[in-house]
Structure formats: C-alpha cells, structure tokens
C-alpha cells in the first residue's frame, strides 16, 4: 500500500534481506540518521541474550511523550536465518496480515514480532522524540547514550528545538 506509506520509507522492506545473511552469527543495522557517540560493543553480542521466542533486538518507540508497546527500527539486531526470512516473505505476501503501512517495514515487523522482541534499551536508539517529549528522561540518561537517532530533525537541517543534540553530529562531521 505504497500510497499510504511515507515516501521516505517506501524502500524499507529491503531490510528483510538481512535475515538471509546466514554467513553471520548476527547482523546489526543502524539507520543513516543515527550517530554512534559511545562504545556499542554490547550490540555485537546481544544476540546471545535472545531467548527462543525473541527474534529481533530493538528499542521501544515513543509517541506523544509516552512509551509505546511497539519498537523503532532505526537500530536493530537479528540472528540471520533462512527459514525466518522465508516466513517474513510469506507474511509480507499475505494480504490477510494487517499492519500500519505509513511506517512501512516498521509497522509490518511490529505485527510479526509482537511480544517477540528483545529490548536493547533507550541508550542504543536514543530517539529525538524522547529529547523533545520526555526531556527530563533524556537528560537523566544522556551520559549513557551510545546511539542518537535523529528521527524528528535531521542534524544537517537542525531545528532550534534540537540544536544541542545536533551539535554532537556537527562537531563530529566538522572535525
């Protein structure tokens, strides 16, 4: 349903190919609008913590100042598995599977992996929505953030609201 999908998300189902990369023990995906500011070694081994029914490592999403029961796909870890890839493709091609198409694969994977995801934690996908909607929460954890996800304002066209957080990106890219 591409007409209902935000244009910038229309190619995101290509992420499913990561499940086919069976030559790797795990795959870490990081959106291009993310910035790693601290060590992320934890993410390279987190798949070993997945329980049998947890098939993807992600961070909880936020909207209107509240944590959701869904996850954000800006940073995620999967254990590649051809059988799981085929299952995802079968779900994707099944017209009976209903999901929010506006966010493309994120809506799809939130339905497929409902209650079957491993929480990576805010520190590994510090969504800018948290900065603006739950600023005290952000500030309390700021010194532990490893990855900033510039969801609300891209750092190359930063708005006043996010000026302080965009300076991380600007200081790194200018150096």
Order of SSEs: EEHEEHHEEHHEH
**Amount of beta strand:** 15-25%
The rough form would be described as globular
Low-confidence parts: none
Please give the count of helices: 6
Rg result: 16 Å
Largest sheet: 4 strands, mixed
For the termini, the CA-CA separation is: 42 Å
By secondary-structure content and strand pairing, the structural class works out as alpha/beta
> What is the spatial order of strands in the main beta sheet?
1-4-3-5
Overall residue-averaged pLDDT value:
86
Describe the structure.
The protein has 175 residues and is an alpha/beta fold. The chain is 28% helix and 21% strand. A 4-stranded mixed β-sheet has the order 1-4-3-5. A 3-stranded mixed β-sheet has the order 2-7-6. The longest helix is centred in the C-terminal third of the chain and has 12 residues, at 163-174. The model has no long low-confidence stretch (mean pLDDT 86).
What attributes characterize this protein structure?
175 residues, alpha/beta, three-stranded mixed β-sheet
Secondary structure topology:
Elements: E1 27-30, E2 34-36, H1 41-45, E3 56-63, E4 66-78, H2 82-92, H3 105-112, E5 117-119, E6 126-127, H4 128-133, H5 135-141, E7 147-149, H6 163-174
Parallel strand pairs: 3-5, 6-7
Antiparallel strand pairs: 1-4, 2-7, 3-4
